[in-house]
Amino acid sequence: MKEQLQALEQEALSKVEEASTIKELQDVRVAYLGKKGPITEVLRGMGKLSPEERPIIGELANTVRANIANAMEEKKDAMERAELEKQLAEEQIDVTLPGRPVAVGGPHLLTSIVEEIEDLFIGLGFEVREGPEVETDYYNFEALNLPKGHPARDMQDSFYITEDLLMRTHTSPVQARTMNAIQGARPVKMICPGKVYRRDTDDATHSHQFTQIEGLYVDKNVRMSDLKGVLDRFAKHMFGEDREIRLRPSFFPFTEPSVEMDISCKVCNGEGCSVCKKTGWIEILGAGMVHPRVLEMAGYDPNEYSGFAFGMGPERIAMLKYGVDDIRHFYTNDVRFLKQYHQA
């Protein structure tokens, strides 16, 4: 049995030496050191040995097992070192090469415009409010003095989901919701930026989805002169201190009186050119004093409170400020266009 164990040791060591992969090495381990291997079979016959021979053969068997296992570990370590050296040789990195530049993104032009407007009005004491884009007919129309059947509803061709739910056509519902929640308990001074939706045909100046920023200030003794002062500050901040504004009479169902605001053309300084259609003025937004009926429906006493509201489109402001000639540039994700305004 002693000679048999020594022969198995030599045979196993030879197989270890011949192995060229870790898998082959593992196969040798299973073949010689496994539960069904020849060494285990030899040890099962130790019961036939005399008491004097058993410890000698047992010690020899353990030595044979240890020699084979050690040989396998050394061969495995050698294989792994060789594999690592080969990989390092094939995947050399030249640390002296210059780094590859990483393209860094920037805020979208519309995002920059919205944030700039928000910063201005926050500095004037306004808070920023948001509301749902899927709106009820009540808050989108009725709470803003546009009852069912009102002809002014046709001005805002809407995406209806159900008879009572639609994609909001302006951000004014946020104003109505805010006032309704307060119920005349305190003044409100807010702007509400967000996406709005209308059934428009997309072209250079129209889109079925666009952004709006609407503002509202309700308190005691709010006057049209307060509205003009705020809008004048806005125009000078966005388009330059030399800009002038004018207010023209207009109509909106939720304000009375209502006005359209124009700014003096920055291209010709009011002298008249193709940009301003020879008028010297460019229409920029709509505004007015909050209709007493709107205040009353929101829980405010129109005899005690008054207010003004205004609404503007960041796309139009961006087009005028940066000379963008097509609103679709904002949504087509052309990197050549977008990267021009990373610092905007």
Automatic annotation (TrEMBL):
It is an enzyme of class 6 (ligase). GO terms for cellular component: cytoplasm. Its cofactor is Mg(2+). Belongs to the class-II aminoacyl-tRNA synthetase family. Phe-tRNA synthetase alpha subunit type 1 subfamily. It is found in: Cytoplasm. Tetramer of two alpha and two beta subunits. Residues 74-340 form the Aminoacyl-transfer RNA synthetases class-II family profile domain. One of its GO terms (biological process) is phenylalanyl-tRNA aminoacylation. Residues 61-92 form a coiled coil. Its EC number is 6.1.1.20. It comes from Gracilibacillus dipsosauri. GO terms for molecular function: ATP binding; catalytic activity, acting on a protein; magnesium ion binding; phenylalanine-tRNA ligase activity; transferase activity; tRNA binding. The lineage of its organism: Bacteria, Bacillati, Bacillota, Bacilli, Bacillales. It catalyses: tRNA(Phe) + L-phenylalanine + ATP = L-phenylalanyl-tRNA(Phe) + AMP + diphosphate + H(+). Mg(2+) binds at residue 256. Keywords: Aminoacyl-tRNA synthetase, ATP-binding, Coiled coil, Cytoplasm, Ligase, Magnesium, Metal-binding, Nucleotide-binding, Protein biosynthesis. This is Phenylalanine--tRNA ligase alpha subunit. It holds the Pfam family Phe_tRNA-synt_N. The gene is pheS.
